[in-house]
Amino acid sequence: MPLFNKKPFSLMEPPKDLDSKEKVFQIRFTKEIFRDYQEYLKRLNLYRQRVWTCKMSGKTNLTFEEALVSEHNAMEKARSIPTELMAYVLRMTQYSTLGLHELVNKIYANLLEEVFEGIELHANKDGSVVPCKILKILDSDGTKMCEVGWFGREKTLINTSVVKASDLFYRRAPVSRNTLKLFIRDSTTQTTPWVIHENLAKKYGIPVDPPNNIMHKKRRKREENETEDGRKKMKDGDAQVPIKYPIDDMLVRPNADDPALFKRPPLATDFRVPRCSVGDLLMVWDFCSSFGRVLRLSPFPLTDMENAICHKESNVLLVEVHAAIFHLLIKDKGDYFSVLQNKKRKLKVSLVTWTEFLCDFLEMTKSEELSGNIASVRRGYYGLIDTDIKLKILRELVEEAIKTSAIREILSERVDQKQALNATKRESTKKDKEEQNLNTEIAMKNEENQTDAVQDGNESVDELARGKEEKDKSNVSRSKTEGKRHRVWHLETEIEKLSIRSSPLGKDRHYNRYWFFRREGRLFVESADFREWGYYSTKEELDALMGSLNVKGIRERALKRQLEKFYNKLSNALEKRTKDIVNKMLLEEGVLRRSTRVRAQPKDNPSMAFLKYVNKWKDN
Q1: 404: Cα separation from own chain's centroid
Q2: Where exactly are the transmembrane stretches of this chain (predicted)?
């Protein structure tokens, strides 16, 4: 059922004592019945307003009927998950206490490592990669073996053999993260912990009784009872039982002795893309920025990406992004490469041919929501496709690109380099502490010797010289320590550059996640249900946010520590962006003044800067 202003909504009950001959008014898509025509019109007008949200996908600003269609499409996609995987996914979901994002990532990673009867994979056979289907899973002396059927050219099984499960691999994930997310939402009745529908549990033989090790709710209830008991004792005049902080943020209660907290600043939400699509925009842009060298794609600002995706015509920036990913998939010689070979495509993506390659990819996705746009792309109307669909297409391309050998090799190299740098940092920090302790001991010993000499009244010239020499050594040692601190800072910077992916800085009381990207001067905030985004863009907002966090709560304490750790980096990035915006406004004013005398070219407008994009790293 669609959400009204993001809250549950109930349909009208049918009128009582309804006569079969009575004239009534019925709303077609809800089947609601009204005796009064004005009440009927009032409800119908409500359904026509864009205040409805799709409960499954989180799409907002829909009419009621559009939200119903969106929910239907989302449920269809959720149920497109291969039946062979359903029991496994439901079993991992049942009574899990993970958040939706973490649960989806865990299941997705596990699916790539597991094998299932009936699933199609690939394996090396006679020196080449051949598609196959698992017919039966065997257990041979503790080694998992699989009886597989090998596919011929017509997608028919030509022969069978037994191979090790570890020798099988997916060229394409058996299910996308987005489909997993929709399937979990559609299959469960509650969260924290997740509980699947009883009929599904019964169908797949999944236990419905909570396991003994699930103590999440009991712990929360006990903490709430302890807090309530403490309040009751205060009312009765007894001493309050002290609470050991931090505790779960939702259990924190205001206290008269607490320091005053700032009011949390409101989030800016002036995105050009739909707010439910901001996550896809950030994911695609961050991927292009992080792997620009291997993609042969020179960097561009996030605002240019946002303006380009909202533009009603295809433009060079979007063409270059698509072309870069297509070239990567072609070089990988995976499923997409096979599709192009079957169509006998020339493997050169250009400004003219890129839409043909896009249509081939959309056919390969087997997603009705995406493939339904093939006709529009072929007729040259890519720019008129809904912005959220454009971003979903790019997200699918990125998810496919992440699985290529080129990206995996980079990720593996970065992991190794990061581990080596972390080891060097630990060793450097350890030596720094040892020298610091040694210097402290020397300084204390010198102080004691000087005190004794003064008391004896016979401090010699040699002792003074010796003290001066030790002092000089101490100064040299202090200089070395400063040098080592600089090296540690340099190591931390290099480690950050090798980060494989962006991760949230932390969560607040209500589980909203806070994100900072190295190349973007904003602090983004993602709602707990993954559907809404906002951001902070000034140092003052950052300071107010930090002052609003209650360190008595586990999540807000951890978030505040992270914000303090990266405060200089965050505030510098925010201030730089503010200066850039001022300069941009001045430039726009200049364009406006000039346009009163001479017709200004559209590309002179900074908001159209993406039209001037030139891929300087393009492999010609």
Answers
A1: 20
A2: none
Between 256 and 614, the higher pLDDT residue = 614
Residue 506: closest CA among 566, 547, 569, 419: 566
Distance CA(553)–CA(507), nearest Å, equals: 11
Residues contacting residue 95 through CB under 8 Å, at least 6 positions apart: 193, 194, 195, 210, 211, 214
pLDDT(261) > 80: yes
- Summarize the chain as % helix, strand, coil (round to 5): 55, 10, 35
Residue 464: pLDDT over 70: no
CA distances from 572 to 345, 576, 605 (A): 48, 6, 26
Distance from C-alpha of 198 to C-alpha of 81, rounded to nearest angstrom: 19
Region 239-244: mean pLDDT is 70
Rounded to whole angstroms, how far apart are CA atoms 165 and 148?
10
> What pTM does this model have?
0.55
pLDDT at 193: 85
Of the candidates 278, 318, 316, 285, the residue with the CA atom closest to the CA atom of residue 299: 285
Dmax over Cα atoms in the chain, in whole Å?
A: 123
Bridge partners of 163, per DSSP, are 146
Residues 108-141 pLDDT 10s = 988 888 889 999 999 988 888 889 999 999 877 7
